[in-house]
Design goal:
The structure is a single chain. By secondary structure, this protein is of the alpha+beta class. The chain has two domains: 47 residues; 90 residues, Glutaredoxin (3-Layer(aba) Sandwich). Helix content is 54%, strand content 11%. The chain is built from six helices and four strands, in the order αααβαβαββα. The protein has a four-stranded mixed sheet with strand order 2-1-3-4. It is elongated and about 60 Å long.
Length: 145
């Protein structure tokens, strides 16, 4: 889990250092613009923006019962971030599996992608789809209530 937090921590530390340098130079307005930008980048790359992950076996079991897609992802993946942001609040209607925390999830992704850990891999009705368009995934989510 530590490697998932390295990039966000580096962004926060870098933003703080850059903003401090700008304040020391006498440019507080530049510091006030740069620090939030770094913090937003850190937040977007944080695993905290994703719905709570469950194990691959549990996700597949739940999906067999409720028909919801299973999304295999990993922190820092720009395509996973894109999918998560584009799904918005409806992202919580899918089952999310962090392949860095669940070895069975990583095995499932490698099996679906010729040995590569290519994410996001979305499994719908037992069929894997690698990096599908967010609109396609949204269509496969259950209707909002």
């Amino acid at each position: 889990m530590m490697r998932a937090r390295i990039l966000p921590m580096l962004l926060v530390l870098s933003g703080t250092a850059v903003a401090t340098g700008q304040i020391v130079k006498g440019s507080p307005a530049t510091a006030a613009a740069l620090l939030p930008a770094f913090l937003v980048l850190a937040g977007v790359n944080s695993p905290l923006i994703f719905p709570r992950s469950i194990g691959a076996q549990e996700a597949q079991r739940r999906s067999a019962v409720d028909g919801r897609p299973v999304v295999f992802w990993r922190p820092g993946c720009k395509y996973c971030i894109r999918l998560r942001i584009r799904l918005g609040r409806r992202a919580r209607q899918a089952h999310w599996v962090n392949i860095w925390r669940d070895p069975a999830g990583a095995v499932a992704v490698r099996a679906a992608n010729d040995g590569n850990e290519t994410v996001p891999t979305v499994v719908v009705a037992g069929r894997p789809h690698t990096n599908p368009h967010p609109a396609w995934v949204r269509e496969r989510l259950p209707p909002s209530t």
